[in-house]
Specification:
Elements (H helix, E strand, L loop, with lengths): L3 H5 L2 H10 L1 E5 L4 E3 L7 E7 L1 E7 L5 E8 L2 E3 L14 E4 L3 E7 H10 L2 H26 L2 H16 L11 H8 L3 H13 L3 E4 L2 E4 L2 H7 L2
Helix pairs in contact: 5-6, 5-7, 5-8, 6-7
């Protein structure tokens, strides 16, 4: 399935962007970059899946997002000088990214002005997503938030029947903005309704249509 890069850019601009970058490979569990590292490159996720994690004031690390190829991240660093990553990105399986230095990206924009619109669209998607999560946290009950984050992950990874989500209950709780016991109770209720199957360290969505209805 074509990703956002393929769908939203003309072939010439897309190919120029990919050729301008440097491919890097990571094994599952390896860190792509750490929270606080300088950010001056665009990251194009070409293969695999990554978790986006932030450190809390108490020193814990919680998952706030999951990305699957093809996807982009790190775009804020292209428009802010002296920017630092606001999260740690960790490979969940074998991953390949193409890193495009900010200076090279801005050179490309002169030859391919459509890249400016593409960058603005990427930033807009991030802002819309953040606004949606904030609205959920303020106005949506815990059970529906858990259901929504399950759907987000299932759809992002395009999982087939019986394929487990690459996250545990701690990760899901953090993404839904609830405690782990609250997430567990919500998941148990979904399991009782036949919408998910819970195993040791894995979650399988068994009825996407019913889970969608439960998230509304």
């Amino acid at each position: 399935m074509p990703g956002r890069l393929e769908l939203s850019l003309p072939v010439a601009a897309r190919d120029a962007l990919l050729l301008a970058g440097h491919p890097r490979d990571f094994r599952g569990g390896e860190v792509v970059f750490h929270q606080g590292d300088p950010c001056d490159s665009l990251f194009l996720l070409r293969v695999g899946r990554v978790a986006v994690r932030v450190s809390t004031p108490e020193g814990d690390e919680v998952t706030v997002g999951l990305l699957a190829a093809p996807e982009e991240f790190g775009e804020v660093g292209l428009i802010r000088d002296d920017h630092h990553h606001t999260a740690t990105v960790v490979a969940l399986d074998d991953v390949r990214v193409v890193t495009v230095p900010g200076a090279r990206f801005h050179d490309l924009r002169r030859d391919h002005p459509v890249l400016t619109d593409w960058l603005l669209a990427a930033l807009t998607r991030r802002l819309e997503r953040t606004s949606l999560l904030l609205a959920d946290a303020l106005f949506v009950d815990a059970d529906r938030r858990v259901a929504r984050r399950l759907l987000d992950c299932h759809e992002a990874f395009r999982l087939g029947p019986g394929q487990p989500l690459p996250l545990g209950q701690d990760d899901l709780a953090a993404m839904a903005g609830v405690s782990r016991p609250t997430a567990n109770r919500a998941l148990r209720r979904l399991e009782e309704r036949g919408l998910v199957c819970l195993g040791r360290r894995h979650i399988v969505v068994t009825d996407v249509e019913a889970l969608t209805a439960a998230s509304r």
